[in-house]
Amino acid sequence: MYQVIEGGVAAASGFRVGHTAAGIKYRERVDMALLVSDSSCAAAGVFTRNVVKAAPVLWDRRIVREKGTARAIVVNAGIANACTGQRGLGVCGKTADCAARALGLAPEEVLLASTGVIGMDLPLDRICAGIGAMASDLQSGPVAGHRAARAIMTTDTSPKEAAVTLTLDGKRVTIGGMAKGSGMIHPDMCTMLCFITSDCAIEQSLLQQALATVVPDTFNMISVDGDTSTNDTCLLLANGQADNRRIDRKNEDYEAFVKALSAVCGSLARQMAADGEGASCLFEVKVRNARSDAEARILAKSVVTSSLTKAAIYGHDANWGRILCALGYSGVDFDPDRVDLYFSSEKGKIQLVKDGLALDYSEAKATDILTAPKVTAICDMKQGDHEATAWGCDLTHDYVTINADYRS
Q1: Alpha carbon separation from 79 to 90, 186, 258 (Å, rounded)
Q2: CA-CA distances (angstroms) from residue 229 to 38, 60, 61, 183, 185?
Q3: Is the pLDDT of residue 105 over 60?
Q4: CA-to-CA distance for 108 and 361, rounded, in angstroms?
Q5: Which Gene3D superfamilies does the UniProt record give (predicted)?
Q6: Of the candidates 233, 131, 157, which has an alpha carbon nearest to the alpha carbon of residue 188?
Q7: Annotated binding residue at 180?
Q8: I need a surface site. Which of 213, 312, 329, 376 has the fewest CB within 10 A?
Q9: 69 annotated ligand-binding residue
């Protein structure tokens, strides 16, 4: 069993972080973070499936696949270094060189991530100056991790952090992480940017498998606006400093590690969905009794991404027809005359539909339930015994306002 603790990406032993205001795009706030491990780490990663991939994605994917080890991650907010061609890849190489010199590492030990406006060139002089400033002031612990989480935000209104501990081989193992993501969130692998650290001793191939195992039911089950980013990156580093018996096969220790990792990823995913651009509530969709896990995931995401449903949630309108419609165009075949629909929140639970037909429910009660900060739609398909949960948010006027002038 794992235990939730305070902290984030710097909670695990042997990891230190820094932050700085480099002035890359923002002039009045921090916009860079640096994560460093005291020893070499097994490195795992999942990346965007968007055909248009940012330069840092290409850089990281090569290192994870070819080397499988790393020591540091440099992150900047404000400019994405996407659609910048060979210039962008050159900036990646020079950024890694700067970090390597500042930290006494090889460039191939440095991973990179960027988020922000597409098509702009990163100012290399500011990037390198920021790395130098951070390298001289690296710290561990929850306060340092929190500051780093704030440094990677763009349109986010709050930092996203999570950490857990568990016991493996009689040793205390920690997993912690930070993420950013508020808009352009419709992952097809993970999320905008996410960085997870652990002091667990585990083989790189199993670390990669663990990450790939938890992504489908966590990061791949969130959506804010249906747009899959060019920069989606989730990196997981494990330095082995917990000194547990190295996990080299899929045994009980591996399964316990996967469950704890899933808890961290699930928490970060829900935090991102709740902080969707302009959002006023977290919208959760639970599909029950589907024929398979795959169909349950498809159905849940179809509802959570429906613009009409999201607008109805914002208006506190129990318009169940939009939910049934979204289920119907998901691509999953089911019997609509067997579906039951419910809304629930901290203010109560109400059934709206039974066997595909509306019940004589109280609109006033339904509206009151929908005014809560977290609203859940429950879709009972009565087709099997599989289930899935997706997370999103309502669609508000502020979403349009934010994205109408994002580049300014």
Answers
A1: 15, 20, 33
A2: 31, 16, 16, 9, 7
A3: yes
A4: 61
A5: arginine biosynthesis bifunctional protein suprefamily, ArgJ beta chain, C-terminal domain, L-amino peptidase D-ALA esterase/amidase
A6: 233
A7: yes
A8: 329
A9: no
DSSP label at residue 270 = H
Clarify whether 165 is annotated catalytic. no
Q: Does 191 belong to an annotated binding site? A: yes
Residue 346, burial from CB neighbour count under 10 angstroms (0-12, 13-18, 19+): exposed
Query: Does residue 183 surpass a pLDDT of 90?
Result: no
- For 355, phi then psi, to 5°, come to 55, 40
Which of the 8 DSSP states describes residue 221? G
pTM (two decimals): 0.91
Q: Which helix (H) or strand (E) segment is 87 a member of?
A: helix 85-103
Backbone angles phi, psi at 152, to 5 degrees: -95, 5
Q: Please check whether residue 334 is in contact with residue 363, taking contact to mean a CB–CB distance below 8 angstroms.
A: no
Tokens of 119: 């098509």
Joined together, the tokens standing for residue 376 give 């859940």
Helix (H) or strand (E) holding 314: helix 307-314
Which residues, 6+ apart, have CB-to-CB distance to 399 below 8 Å?
Answer: 183, 225, 276, 277, 278, 279
Q: Cβ of 362: how many Cβ atoms within 10 Å?
A: 11
| Residue 376, annotated as binding a ligand | no
Mean of per-residue pLDDT scores for the chain: 95
403 labelled ligand-binding: yes
Q: Is residue 12 a contact partner of residue 38, using CB atoms and an 8 Å limit?
A: no
Q: How many helices (H) and strands (E) does the chain have?
A: 11, 15
Q: Of the listed 191, 197, 230, 396, which one is catalytic?
A: 191
Q: How far apart are alpha carbons 95 and 223 in whole angstroms?
A: 31
What are the structural domains of the chain?
Answer: 2-272 (3.60.70.12), 282-404 (3.10.20.340)
pLDDT at 187 over 80: no
